[in-house]
Amino acid sequence: MRIKPWLAGLSPYPPGKSLEEVRRELGLKGPIYKLASNENPLGPSPRALKALRKSLEDIHRYPEASNRALAEAIARRFGLKPENVVVGNGSNEVIDLLIEALVSPGEEILFSEPSFLMYEKFGAAAGAVLKRVPLKNYRHDLEGLLSAVTPRTRVIFLDHPHNPTGSVLSGEEFEAFLRALPPEILVVLDEAYGEFVRDPQAVRGVDFLRRGFAVAVLRTFSKAYGLAGLRVGYGLMPEDLARVLNAIRQPFNVNLLAQVAAVAALEDEGHLQRTRRLTWEGLDYLSQALSGLGLRPLPSQANFLFVECGRPARPLYEALLRKGLIVRSMEAYGFPEALRISVGLPEENRALIQALGEIL
Question: Using CA atoms, how far apart are residues 26 and 324, in angstroms rounded to an integer?
Fold first, then answer.
């Protein structure tokens, strides 16, 4: 048996701790609040739940292999054609498909450091050369990325808003970046948190796709739509690229329940607006309260805050765990003095601030 040598050093993706994991490890009896994985604290749309219950009687049937109904619903929302849409088992699968379609062993992918870890995972699995460009002032360093481009560069991944800092780029600087790139390089704008952006000057990837730029836009139903457990996301891209990805993806890659729930969730605009309002109010509350505790939360256009603690953050992270509050340590991202905190329900946000006040 000969395993590809470039896979030898790969390690699994480090997920945040689950509620049951914390309860079991620490023997906690009271409530546990998870503010670590940027999930929707309101849960899924009631319309999605109703559609799921109705569809349970059909789970002995294969789902629609083309994902056509969902692709049409997504296309309508963005003013595109279904032929521009690739639906995946989470947007993770679309990342994997893009690399499979565009990058051969020894060719390069570029991304910021830190960024969403799956760019690195899928790139490494494909035998790609991984080129990392450090953030500049907690934002993507577009000049640094341009200087890292070579004739072997195939794809540039930009998570936007950036994870874990929540920062964004302006449309003006993004367009200048695109115009400076060789036309054969695809820029992937990963808008997993795109529904939460409040800044009117921030890049909106679909605008550049419509104008014919070489961009692909990733979105997910895991965050704003509250369907993380069903694993469904999508990519918006030029038709010729979407055609290839739809040809190489697995048949039935998105299960029947995920397809039905996602269509229903897209139709429930009221639930999305409630989610946004809750998130924005929570961001404002947490930013003010954390600053009052002497911590430094960065401005965020996502549904989480990157918080500089001014001291090693692991003791704070562990002390919060013992109080039943799960946040995310940023050590793995190269920030040992920072935490990432997801916005929760108002009572969860208040519990976090009270606990932090006691610890500090």
Answer: 9
261-287: pLDDT as tens digits: 999 999 999 999 999 999 999 999 999
d(CA 332, CA 110): 19
Within 10 A of 168 (CB to CB), how many other CB atoms are there? 24
CB 270 within 8 A of CB 251: no
Looking at the 3D structure of the chain, how many domains does it have? 2
195 and 339 in a single domain? The answer is no
Q: Which of 232, 267, 302 is the last residue of a domain?
A: 267
Specify whether the backbone of 339 is left (phi greater than 0), alpha (psi in -120 to 50) or beta. beta
3-class SS of residue 89 = coil
Tokens of 19: 């509620």
Residue 16 has pLDDT above 70, yes or no: no
Region of 67 (left: φ > 0; alpha: ψ -120 to 50; beta: rest) is left
What is the predicted pLDDT for the residue at 80? 97
Q: Are residues 88 and 111 in the same domain?
A: yes
104 and 24: one domain? no
Half-sphere exposure of residue 94: CA atoms within 13 angstroms, side-chain side: 29
Identify whether residues 250 and 283 lie together within a single domain.
Answer: no
Pairing of β 338-342 and β 325-326 = unpaired
Place of tokens 């090693």: 312
**Across all residues in the chain, what is the average pLDDT?**
94
Are residue 161 and residue 173 in the same domain, yes or no? Answer: yes
Residue 275 dihedral angles phi and psi, to the nearest 5°: -65, -45
